[in-house]
Amino acid sequence: MTNQYSRLETILKMLLHQKTGSLEPPAQTFNDRVENYAYHLLDSGVIVMVGELLPTQRSQLSMHLQFMMHTYTELYYLLNTGLYNSTDVPVAYLADKDYPLVVVFEAKMYIIVRVLANLIIPYVALRHHEGRSSLIEKRGIIETMLEQLGADKVEPERKQIVRQYALQFLDSLLEADIKQVSLTNFSQDVELDFGHTRKLARQTVRPNTIPGLETQPPAQTPTKPEASPDNIIPLPPLRRRERDEDSVKTNRGLLGRLRGG
Questions:
Q1: How far apart are CA 92 and CA 62, in angstroms?
Q2: H-helix segments, the chain
Q3: Which residues constitute the domain of residue 175?
Q4: What's the Cα-to-Cα distance from 35 to each of 14, 24, 131, 259, rounded to whole Å?
Q5: Is residue 1 situated within a structural domain?
Q6: Residue 31 falls inside a structural domain
Q7: Are 232 and 66 in contact (CB under 8 A)?
Q8: Which among 12, 54, 80, 252 counts the fewest CB atoms within 10 Å?
Q9: What angle do CA 239, 138, 166 make, to 5 degrees?
Q10: Contact assessment for residue 89 and residue 238, using Cβ atoms and an 8 Å cutoff
Q11: What region does 137 belong to: left with phi over 0, alpha with psi -120 to 50, or beta?
Q12: Dihedral sign of CA atoms 168, 196, 121, 146 in order
């Protein structure tokens, strides 16, 4: 019997085997299985993103994909450079040539990888689905992110710069035309705005079946998901830094560039 969810599960299993040399025992439901694999991949710095475009937009898929992945990369650089003075450069690539999009994003700062997968992506997927968000809610998401990243140890001016531009990047992700489905949930309860009421939520919104994935039979020979010249997604480079370029008192480096320097 053909497994109707085979494409996504095959990608996740192959990635996990590549990164860890093992395969996790499958859970009973599709939802639990993909979530299980996605969480274990985070330990290797791998985020698997799933997204869709309207049929009328697919002729410009490359443009929309680059916009989304550039935004995630710039957010990663902001957090990496602004909070940890790290110069890690991530890589992103398409897991295969099929549709809906399955994108693999790999980076070495696992703490940031986890906060993206356990907070930002579930939130973006949730509000893409509902088509709404409020400024107070988005500010709360950014504050939660900074708390999870230990930003209380960062000097106030630097933290304010990170806060300001993280909010802008979050807005850009919410405005992106690619609508995401998150394979992971919030790592803690987050306060969400529902008009006249606010309440804590832990679950993102995920369809029981991901459109386009549930009807595709497995490929005879699945493509190994790895970065290659054919599937790599061009990402913005991290600007070269001098010794003091990450100082908030200079106009250099990432933070200086975001301030207009």
A1: 13
A2: 6-20, 30-42, 61-84, 110-115, 121-130, 135-148, 156-175, 253-258
A3: 6-258
A4: 15, 11, 24, 38
A5: no
A6: yes
A7: no
A8: 54
A9: 10
A10: yes
A11: alpha
A12: positive
Q: What is the CA radius of gyration of the chain?
A: 18
Interior/surface letters 218-245, b for 16+ CB within 10 angstroms, e for the rest = eeeeebebeeeeebebebeebeeeeeeb
Q: Identify whether 137 is part of a domain.
A: yes
Q: Do residues 241 and 235 lie in contact, with contact meaning Cβ atoms separated by under 8 Å? A: no
- 62 HSE (CA, 13 A, CB side): 5
Residue 78 is which amino acid?
L
In angstroms, how far is the first alpha carbon of the chain from the final one? 60
- Give the type of residue at 25: P
Per-residue tens of pLDDT for the chain, all 261 residues: 234 457 888 899 999 999 988 777 777 777 788 888 999 999 999 999 999 888 888 889 999 999 999 999 999 999 999 999 889 999 999 999 888 899 999 999 999 999 999 999 999 998 886 667 888 899 999 999 999 999 988 898 999 999 999 999 999 999 999 999 899 988 887 877 766 556 666 666 665 556 556 555 555 556 778 888 889 999 999 876 544 444 444 444 555 555 544
Laid out side by side, the sheet with 91-94 consists of 91-94, 101-106, 46-52, 179-181
User: What is the C-alpha to C-alpha distance for residues 13 and 25, in angstroms, rounded to an integer?
Assistant: 10
Instruction: Quote the number of domains for the chain.
Output: 1
